[in-house]
Every structure is written in structure tokens, then in C-alpha cells.
Amino acid sequence: MSRKFTNLALLTSAALLLTACGGSSDEAGANDGAGEPLIVYTNSNSEGRGEWLQAEAEKEGIDIEIVGAGGADATNKLIAEKNNPIADVVYGLNNVYYEQLKSEDVLEPYTPEWSGDVDESLADPDDDKAYWPLVQQAIVLAYNDDAVSEPPEDWTDLWTDDRYSDRYERASSMAGATTQLVMAGILSRYQDENGDLGVSDEGWQQIEQYFQNGVAAEKDVDLLARFAEGDVDLGQMPSSSIPGQEETYGVTAGVVSPEIGVPYVVEQIGVVKGSDNQDEAKKFVDWFGSSDVQGRWAAEFDAVPVNEAALEQAKPEVIEFDEQFTRQDIDYAFVQENLDSWVEKIELEYMP
Fold it and tell me: Which of 155, 107, 150, 38 is nearest to 269 (CA)?
């Protein structure tokens, strides 16, 4: 079987199997060199992002097809395909996932034209950089402002205070980047070199109670839609999703600002090593990360761009909203070392 038809079969399967965080996958075709669409893997194509990006790229003369998946699923798929890559570009994942991809030699080092417009400390720490930052956002504990008169002060209040028992949405899958960052933000507080997977017994008790006292998330149902229906009153979400969901569902969301801070995600972009469309992939990275496109992306999707030249196009209220949060000090080297094992333990021992 030729590589073209092998890739077509694999990619068709991918489109059927993978679902994006909060959105569905776009069907993707084969990628067999010049003239074929650029295949883009991402966990950031929901809420119209994928459609917007595809349309804007087409105006630029870049033909792309998007395959959406949760962060962990996209990472695992890229690693599984590394000897016969299907994707040309991957964007939207956080540093932990990109470090996994880099360690598996999945990424092609590339310095985009806009590299001087971003804080280099947010990119790949190695000199031969394989990924670069696009946007950053807080992962927050949101609540229905109309239903919660006394909001919690921290995540741990959800399962230790009876007022919130069975009223908060808890994860029903560990595949998403947001959920994994929430778990990392909790477990990293209980780091113990003598504990199971580097975490104390108390830390694992927190995870157990988190799952015992919450209401399972529903696939493809937004958190604020459940607020509007009265199913739950609190839950996790990326900060950039709040304004759009408030408008869609007619709900006002408050956010919790724990003293310890909140996890932050920096969404990155990188070129997939060994793909057939290397030149087009680099062209796409240069275009998508540019100040003009990132500025328009920020204005459209309430994002906080890392590109300093794009910040002037971001909505002032979004910047002000983001500035209220303190970044939680998370040892991401510790997280990266243990994340896969944490996910496996949670799925086997704690997740109903």
C-alpha cells in the first residue's frame, strides 16, 4: 500500500476517533506533499476557532485541514505517528505536552519570523527551539454568580465544604489539557519525595474527594450551559472561554482567585518533524504567530496574546480580567516527570 493511501486511512480514522476540547474534529485528508492541504493538529479549535482559522488561512492562500483532539490525545497520536507523520503543524498544546513531543523527537526546530516579538522565556528553553508561544490564559474555577452567594476561596473548598458538594462539575475524562493542569495544580501542592508518585497521602486524598463529591462533566456540553440549566454551579474552564459562553447562555460567571494562584497555560506552536509540507508548515507558523493575525485572534476569541505587538488589538477588559490572577508556582519539571503516571493512577483508582 502506498504511503498516500496509508496516510489517508490513518487520517480518516483519526478524524472519527478524535474529538476536540469542547468541539468536534474536522475531517482531514491525506498529506502527501506539495499541493496537498496542510494538516494541523490542535486542542484549540472549539467555539469557532477552527473555522475562523481555516477561513483566514485560505485568504492568505494557505490550505489547511484541522484535526482536533484533547491535549493528551493529540500528543499521544503525534508520538505514535512519528515514524510516518500525518500532521504538519501542531498548535495549542501547553509546555508539558511540547516537552513530551520534543523528547520523542517529534518536532522540527524552527525560529519563526515573529520570534523577537515574544518573551523567549515562554518558549522552548533549549537554544535550538522546537516550539514557540502564542497565547496565555488562566485555568480558573468559575461559578454561577446568580446561584452562588458565598463562593469558595480555593479549589479544595469544593470537596471539603458541604455547600458545594454535588454542585460542582468534575472531570469525566483525563484526556484534556485543562483537566490535567487542574490536577497538576492540586497535586503539586502535596509534593513528597517519599509519597506515591511524588505525592503525599493527603494529596491523593484530595483527588479522591474531588471525584467523590462532584458531578461528572457531560461531553460536548459547555459549563455555562449547565449553569443555565441549574445542573451545576461551579467548575473549571479556560478564562478565554468565559465571555463567549456568558453571551451564549445568558449567565454571569464569577471566578475564584485562590491565594496560592491559578494554573496558567501558554499555548505553543511547532512544526512536525518529517512531514511532507515543511515549507508550507513554516509559512503557516510565520503567518499565524504574526502580530496581525494574533491580534485579530485575540479580539475574536477574548485571548491574551504573547506577541507584544498584538496586545494592542486585544480587548482591554480581557487584559484587565487576566491581571486579577496570580500565577500558581508549579514545578513543571516535577509535573512532566510524573504526569503520565498520575493520569493512569487517577483513571484506575479514583475516576468512577
Answer: 107
Report CA torsion sign: 155, 99, 135, 29. negative
Strands (E), 54-190: 64-68, 89-91, 107-108, 132-144, 169-170
Residue 348 CB contacts under 8 Å (≥ 6 apart), including other chains: none
Euclidean distance between CA atoms 8 and 310, whole angstroms: 37
- Asked whether 188 and 212 are in contact (CB, 8 A), the reply is no
Task: For residue 227, give the amino acid letter.
Answer: F
CA distance 81 to 70: 16
Residue of 40, 117, 109 lying closest to 281 (CA atoms): 40
d(CA 48, CA 56): 12
Q: Say which residue the cell 526546530 belongs to.
A: 109
- Helices assigned H by DSSP within 197-309: 201-213, 223-229, 242-249, 278-288, 291-301
Contact 15, 27 (CB under 8 A): yes
Write out the E strands in the chain.
38-42, 64-68, 89-91, 107-108, 132-144, 169-170, 191-196, 199, 215-216, 234-238, 253-255, 264-272, 304-305
Residues 143 and 167 sit within 8 Å (Cβ to Cβ): no
Residues, the chain: 352
Q: What radius of gyration do the chain's Cα atoms show?
A: 20
Looking at residue 34, what is its pLDDT?
Answer: 53
Please answer whether residues 37 and 26 qualify as being in contact, where contact means their C-beta atoms are separated by less than 8 angstroms.
Answer: no
Could you state, in chain order, the average pLDDT of each consecutive group of 10 residues for the chain (352 residues)? Answer: 36 35 39 73 93 97 95 94 97 92 96 96 93 95 97 97 97 91 96 97 98 96 98 95 93 96 94 95 98 96 94 91 90 89 97 92
Q: Are 338 and 197 in contact (CB under 8 A)?
A: yes
Amino acid at 131: Y
CA distance 171 to 351: 9
| For the chain, the helix, strand and coil percentages under 3-state DSSP, each to the nearest 5 | 45, 20, 40
Contacts of residue 335, defined as CB under 8 A and 6 or more positions apart, other chains included, come to 96, 184, 188
